[in-house]
Amino acid sequence: MITEVGIAVALAISGSALLTVVRRDVTAAARCWLSVPIGAALYSIVALVSLVIVGTLDPAIALIAALGLGLVVTAITLLKGGGLRREDLLWMLIGVGVAAVTAVAARQLHLTRLTPDSLRYLLASNHLVLTEGLREMNAVDLVTRQIGLPALHSMSDLVGRRYLASLGPLFGTFGLGLFVWLAVDLTRGALARRNRLVLVATASLFLLSSNRLVYDSFYINTHIQMAAYLLIAVAGTWLAVSRGLSLWAVPSGLALAVTLLFRPEAPLVVAILLVTVAASRATMSVRLAMTLPTLAVGALWYGLGLWRYAAGGDEISPTAPVFGSLVAIGLAVALCLVSGAHRARPWARWLDLAGVAGLALLLVFYIATDPAVFGTSIESTVRNLVRDGFWLLTWVAAIALLLVALVVESIPDGRLWTIPVIGFALLYWALPYIREGAWRVGAGDSGNRILAHYLAVTVVFLVLAAVHNRGGASGGQTETM
Amino acid sequence: MRLGRIYTRFLPAAFVATAVVNFALTPFLPGSGAPIRTHRDGSLTELVHTEQRAVDRRFGFYLELDDAADGGVLVVPEGSFVNAELADGFAGFELVEVAYDPRAGGANIPETPESWLLETESGDVTISILAGDDDLWWLAERPGGEFVVVPNSVAPAPVSS
């Protein structure tokens, strides 16, 4: 158990250390809750480089390298800009403490959940540590399962177990911590203190009562990681652009990039968010921070890794998973950077709306060509949302509230929230056509499970819409509830 | 805008009401949705009388019948290399019977069966499964001391207890 606690602490320190570079704009408390996801992102990127360049993954070396990178960044930052404040150290210690306690609790409580899908990820984690890791891993699974989760679970080698019981709980705990921090920060100054506390507490309770999200914190799959990374990416982008806290784009860009290692549909998710940034008033430095990690990870993983080793990876066709994803990533990155130019602004600001309209048209085309898939997906989704998917009332309430929020919201730079939320919803309905067929009924169906990716983002949006809406809550210091 | 004010005013109540209903209904959810359980020692699958661990990372999973007083049934797909060893060393093989799975194509009919049936007698028998080609294997729990290994492309084999 000591080794597993050590891994959790190393991830927290690695992330905290790297985030020292953004301390001007990202508060110590926020960095605390970002530490484990960002530490894991750093480890995953080191693992990617090792697998693509060296051919194999040594989890101990990758963890030490991630830790070393973080500490080097800290040293350089401190040499340039003064020492750490007491508050920085305090929150760093809190992060390390929470990581350690979470790891101990995860091992003691023994709540890990597995399905046959989990075993596939864990078998892949066995293959990645072999001499030619990517060649050893199943060629189909390289695309469908990706290497993010297997690379993280490869660290179980250091523990002498077959999986890291603490990995899911760490993302769940730190994701919840970040959610609470965001809810507190985003509502600051907009409501009376008591009302603000009530809103934050009830929103957190809502999230905690979501059965599938809690389940995903213990289930060996990629869902809790995606939920945490998308929350960081979407919220961080808004803070960087709308609040002018441009350094938030660093964790946001890293989180967005690393999703490419976790899910096969991530390139489309990344494209939606980057096109949203393209249309926003983001500065060029924000655009660079958002796109360069995605460009590097996309080029390494899709261009060098999957292209060579995945089943059909070198197929050149718009619908080929590797080539199509490369095009989506490349196009989104290019649009995001080009639209930062002053001369591009008149047309670039409509890019996000055009993107969503294009996605909607694509969906209409799909439905027209094969309405049965859509019909089955609707029926399955309705059944999953109200009963069979084990979401209980979560999405029934969230969708109803979301529809109202979309109408009433007046969030500054609100399209940074509404376009991703609508885009993810359209993508949900388009995925059955792009992937393996209609969504099915049941808690274990992919469609039902990926709903977890978007829940935290949706709830933060609901909270923001409560303090920035046409009813006058925005800026109202004493607005009552 | 009145709707905005109503939204702001009632959002916390909506959150609380949903949470209360969710918490109240959670105990009534059927099962955990996770068919494969874990051991406290970090091994993966808790099959009846069975413990699973990796003995050779290259070749996937390794099954050990640690208390197989009543034997066990192992179904593996065509092309698999099945090897049974005594747990106390390499004292020799103790393959009791290797036959085609009668449920997959009729008893002992040698026509491209989808799976082999391996039955073991009582005693400490270790069975290792070496996956051929590029297939991956996964395990599904079955009642009655039986367990199934199926490749990526095949649905769980129809084994009944």
Would you give an account of this structure?
The complex is a heterodimer of chains A (481) and B (161). Chain A has one domain. Chain A starts with a helix and ends in a 14-residue tail after the last helix. Chain A is mainly alpha-helical. Chain A is globular and about 50 Å long. The longest helix of chain A has 27 residues. The radius of gyration of chain B is 23 Å and the shape is elongated. In chain B, the strands form 2 sheets. A 5-stranded antiparallel β-sheet of chain B has the order 1-2-3-8-5, with no helix packed on it. Chain B has a 5-stranded mixed β-sheet with strand order 6-7-4-10-9. In chain B, a hairpin with a 2-residue loop joins strand 1 and strand 2. Chain B folds into 2 domains: 30 residues; 106 residues, no CATH class. Chain B has 2 helices and 10 strands; from the N terminus they run H-E-E-E-E-E-E-H-E-E-E-E. At the A-B interface, helix 5, helix 7, helix 10, helix 20 and helix 22 of A face helix 1 and strand 9 of B.
Question: What is the strand and helix layout of this fold?
Answer:
The complex is a heterodimer of chains A (481) and B (161).
Chain A: H1 2-19, H2 28-54, H3 59-81, H4 86-109, H5 116-128, H6 133-136, H7 139-144, H8 148-153, H9 167-186, H10 193-208, H11 211-216, H12 223-241, H13 249-258, H14 266-279, H15 284-309, H16 321-338, H17 345-348, H18 351-369, H19 371-388, H20 394-408, H21 415-434, H22 446-467
Helix pairs in contact in A: 1-2, 1-3, 1-4, 2-3, 2-4, 2-9, 2-13, 2-15, 4-9, 9-10, 9-12, 9-22, 10-22, 12-13, 12-22, 13-15, 14-15, 14-16, 14-18, 14-21, 15-16, 18-19, 18-21, 20-22, 21-22
Chain B: H1 2-25, E1 46-47, E2 50-53, E3 62-65, E4 72-77, E5 81-86, E6 97-100, H2 102-105, E7 115-120, E8 125-130, E9 137-141, E10 146-151
Parallel strand pairs in B: 4-10
Antiparallel strand pairs in B: 1-2, 2-3, 3-8, 4-7, 5-8, 6-7, 9-10
